[in-house]
Structures are given as C-alpha cells and as structure tokens.
Amino acid sequence: MFEIEAALAQNARDVDAVLGSLLPASDDREARLMEAVRYSTLSGGKRIRPFLVRSSADLFGVSHGLALRVAAAIEMIHSYSLIHDDLPAMDNDDLRRGMPTCHVKFDEATAILAGDALIARAFEVLAEPATHADPRVRADLVVEVARASGGEGMVGGQMLDLLAAQWKLEIAEITRLQRLKTGALIAVSCEAGAILGKAADSHRHALRAYAHDLGLAFQIADDLLDVEGSAEETGKRTHKDESAGKATFVSILGPERARAQSHMLAHQAIQHLEPFSAQAEPLRALALFVVTRRY
C-alpha cells in the first residue's frame, strides 16, 4: 500500500531544500525582503502542488532535478498568493500554518513586496535553461503557469472571492470561483510533468481532468475543515467564510452531502488516471488523502 503521508513528508523535505537554494538569505540592505520571503515560503505546508508536479513528471521519466525546479517555482507562486490573501485588504488573517502571517510578522508593505518578489523569482526559475534544455518546453511552462496564476486563473478567482460576500452564490458559481482560485494552480501542477516530459495531448488532458476533480474535492475538504476543524489542527483561523457571509459548498449542501460530494470527486479523479496504470499510484493515493485529511 502506498504510504501517502510519508511520501508527502519526503517530498516537502526535497522541495524545501530546493526552495532554500533558489531563495538564498541576503545580508544586503534589502535583506528584510528575503527574510520575509524565506519566512513565508519555508514555514512548512503540505506541498501538495509540488507533489503533483513530481508525481506527474514521474509518469514520463522526467528527472527529479528538473521536476523539483518546476515544483519549487509553482510553490513560490502558491506562497505569494497566501501572503497576499492574508493581507488586511483581502482576508485579513493573522495566522498561517500555525505562525503569524507575513504582514503581522513584518509589516504590510514588506509582505506585499515579498509576494511580488516570489512571483518574479518563480518565472525566472521556469525560464532558466537549468529547468529544461528545450526552450519550447520552458516557454510552454511559462505560458501555462502564467495563465493559471493570472486573471483567467488564481487571481481572477480571488477577485470573485472578494465579491462573494455581496452575492448569493449558487453551486455552479461557487464551483467556477474555486476552479479559478484553487483549481487552476492545481491543474497546471499536474500538467507540468507532462509538459516537461513532452507527453501526448491525450495524457495532458487526462491529467487536467484528474486535477479538475481533485481541485474541487480539495476545496470541499477545506470548507469542511473551516466548519468542523480547529485552529490547532489547521494552523489557521476557522469559521472564516461563515463570519464573512460567504456561501460555500458546505453552507449550501450541508456537511454530510458536501463530504459525500468530495469523496465522489476523489474517486472520479482516480478514474481519469486509467491510462497510466500502476505508475499513477501516488496520484491515486493523494486523491483519497485530500478528502480525509484533518490539516
């Protein structure tokens, strides 16, 4: 049986080592910026997006070194999004991964700059020859990650999330919001391994379909943790959506129906992995893990 939690822990150690080397500490006058960057990026986390990059890359025989660089770049973008999401102008959170958020630990201006620095560094890493010898592969990575991160993806989803408290959202609208805010970066993480491996379009489509269902299952599980979990378990403030008056999968479906929906999506995601046989066992195990986790 595949030990998903042990694999996630090892992946986190590997990714953190690469992140540490790509985001070195500085003793220049702007050292406070890199201190904030490293504080926010190297403060733990499940590293699920990097795990998706590596697991999808393994399907196509991509070297771990190349996959880890892309995994680290995508985690930089994820970390930047968390820094900015936590700001007073956004979700106004003071706790992340059991630690003070970046703007609380440092200050709001430094947190904004730390996020800016992370997204710039992420695309620098993706574009560097060390990430892949083929410039077309690097260009494809840059385009797909940019699309997933921007107005047609994560940032667009965050805009919808900010507006959500003003609307009475239905399930279809919540699904679209989460597909952009959370699902887009998860999807490109899955597809990145196929891009690195120059995989056939059919394989890219299968991984994207898997990621689509995985992303929604992940978000429903997050919504359940926000309602049923504690700050000690999750490392962040809970009951946020209810306090903000935002509709979620849980507020509309109720906890039990939402939980059943997340499990259905996880099993549906697994079905999309049929073309990859036993090689995709880490991805199958992850789909089941995301809907049963307590953190």
Fold and architecture overview:
The protein has 15 helices and 2 strands. It is mainly α and 295 residues long. The protein has one domain: Farnesyl Diphosphate Synthase (Orthogonal Bundle), CATH 1.10.600.10. A two-stranded antiparallel ribbon has the order 1-2. The radius of gyration is 18 Å and the shape is globular. InterPro entries: Isoprenoid_synthase_dom_sf (IPR008949), Polyprenyl_synt (IPR000092), Polyprenyl_synt_CS (IPR033749), Prenyl_diphosphate_synthase (IPR053378). Its cofactor is Mg(2+). Keywords: Isoprene biosynthesis, Magnesium, Metal-binding, Transferase.
Helix and strand arrangement:
Layout: H1 4-22, H2 31-41, H3 48-58, H4 64-85, E1 95-96, E2 99-100, H5 102-105, H6 108-127, H7 135-149, H8 154-164, H9 171-196, H10 201-228, H11 231-234, H12 240-244, H13 249-253, H14 255-271, H15 281-290
Antiparallel strand pairs: 1-2
